[in-house]
Amino acid sequence: MIPLSLVKTTALTLMDKAAIEIPEDYLDGLKQAAETEDGDLSSFVLKAMLENYEAAKEDRRAMCGDTGVPRWFVKLGNDAKVEGGMCALETELRRATAEATDSVPLRPNRVHPLWRTDHNNNVGINAPEIEYAFEPEGDWIDLITVHKGGLFGTDYRMLFPSDGIQGIKRFYLDSLMAFGKRGLACQPAIIGIGLGGSKDVCMTLGKRASTLRVVGSRNSDPRIAEMEDEFKELGNSIGMGAMGFVGKNMVIDCNIEVGYCHTGGMPMSVHAFCLSSRRAVARLFPDGRVEYRTDPDWFTPYQRRETVDWTPAREAAE
């Protein structure tokens, strides 16, 4: 059984790491963008951000003044058990969010939508968000925190099957142009696209594609993987670079996730993560071990399963 004390200390460490230490995969992508960028202002922004990341890590300070809205993703092996149960786990994640807001510190961005009530700790009604997934084997839990910008950088459209790939491309480019021209997102960024599902699932898929996949990963469907390569190149061909200035590096990578949808429609969402791609991951084991990493490894074969049944790996090998 995984003790609550381990959940709490690990969650606090993750909050600190996410706010301060930029993931290596994104940092490498940003450095490549800086090497190829020829727009004067875009080059200046990229250089300044890379210097800022080094300073943040050295001084142990948040890499961006706006630390976004912290959220949690929890993945559990089928045999995982947590002391006190899942409600106790959620309580510890909320406590860690509140404490980290003061200790890192994080900007307390969460307020009531109508009364603007602010508890000064990023905790409130339905905040922070905690989402769950499961794996068929294992007694571990993965804790993933993402600090995503909480205002814009997201769009949705109900397309139709007849719109086809060209319709998907049009909406993708429309979204990127709006993000850049209207200052709705901080570029360059990892772009996530959700295709299919119901409207809420479509939005969830796109957001997870942008925040829970690493730069250079590709969808297990080779045809979608080809689209990801094409859309990355397409997004960098519109003449926009860092923070919407003239340039050629707006998209560090493009990730696409799909869900089966109603036969009469083709929902689509587009999400930009952030110029500071804040995420951190740890796997907790019952014996007290904690393994930290930056790849959420969220979209496993089990998460993308298409069939009714699932055969665990150990049974398939027998």
UniProtKB/TrEMBL annotation:
The keyword Lyase applies. Pfam families: Fumerase. Residues 11-282 form the Fe-S hydro-lyase tartrate dehydratase alpha-type catalytic domain. It comes from the Bacteria. Transmembrane segments: none annotated. Keywords: 4Fe-4S, Iron, Iron-sulfur, Lyase, Metal-binding. Belongs to the class-I fumarase family. This is Fumarate hydratase.
